[in-house]
Amino acid sequence: MDIQLINIGFGNIVSANRVIAIVSPESAPIKRIIADARDRGQLIDATYGRRTRAVIVMDSSHVILSAIQPETVAHRFVFSKDDNNSHN
Question: Which pTM was predicted?
Fold first, then answer.
């Protein structure tokens, strides 16, 4: 199994294989997910003090906040997977 890494902004990188969802932080259910992760100690803030634009949910129940748009993160995710498949 190849380890694929995705840049989520400001030099921060996550393992693409462990991502469950990339969502916008606007809705009340996502805000509850963020608050619950903060309470559990499983929230990772990778925004560098900027506004949260994407929330990345990992298979380990960690929640990562990113300052780049969910569409941008998703594009990097898809683009990375396509690059790896073309080299096989």
Answer: 0.87
